[in-house]
Here is the input.
Amino acid sequence: MIKTLNKSFWTIVLSSLLVVSFATTAQAKTKFITIGTGGTTGVYYQVGRNICRLVNKDTKKHGVSCKAESTGGSVYNLNTIRSGDLDMGVAQSDWQFHAYKGTSKFSDKGANTKLRALFSVHSEPFTVLARSDSKIKTFYNLRGKRVNIGNPGSGQRGTMEVVMESYGWDKGSFKAVSELKADEQAQALCDNKVDAIVYTVGHPNANIKQATTLCDARLVRVDGRPVRRLVDDNSYYRWANIPGGMYKGNDKETKTFGVGATFVTSADVGEDVIYTVVKAVFDNFDDFRRFHPAFANLDKKAMTKDGLSAPLHPGALKFYKEAGIAPKS
Ligand code: GLU
Here is the structure.
């Protein structure tokens, strides 16, 4: 009896020790990564959250634990990946291009030669929404109006500055400018603090839905001659349409130009981590696409190359080769 008791006692002690030591090793090995996104009413936040949800399903197996953080947007994400404070982030294809080449907004800092691409995501039309009572119909009509040009660090702020410059405008061309974050702008529009807001964003999204539901607001055409020149001269811009019927009071399609959302990192982030993240998304692709209507038309092969100016991270390329979807070099 005593012998049996003793035996089971030691079995319990030993197995608890083993469990504890396994748990500690697993924990010590867990790699925590953070993804920079955008405002919580945008689509980047949904990209980050969905990637993390798929990665975190198997943390016990691969040891990577992922967190998505709301941030100021593309330019903030690119700068913070460069400084090493973010592991990965979502960024517009135009700003990815400039960060990698050290042009436009990034000319002071110079080229970030360590910037690496994982994949592209949804299209992002440059979206201008105006109060119906402002009578703004085209981008040109913004002149002399109260416009929220976006927070510094956001992709829309950067792209808005490029469009303003192409029209020969500066901040003084408007009656008033504000620099509200994306999450604050629907309320400002409907409180009649501004006449129009801009947002480079996938559709449909909660932000534009909020504004068009709260008050009478119309999407504005952005297709004047200066914009045509921008699209003709730069590979990272393309024509885009915001379909009619997506938002209240906006039954007709709206013509504008746009960019693509892309997912980027640094060459300093390990190959295994990037491989794990890419595999989590591509092996659960239908699940990923179902998560948000802006992802519905995503195509695996196109995602490995469209809108990517920085080289693919070796961890991503490894997965694409295994899956037979690597872009031809
Ligand atoms: N394109 C925006 C930016 O770069 C963010 C859009 C979003 O959050 O979906 O800041």
In short: Residues 202 and 260 are 9 Å apart (CA to CA). The chain has two domains: 33-121+260-323, 124-259. The pocket of glutamic acid is lined by residues 38-39, 42-44, 73-74, 92, 124, 154-156, 200-202 (CB under 6 Å).
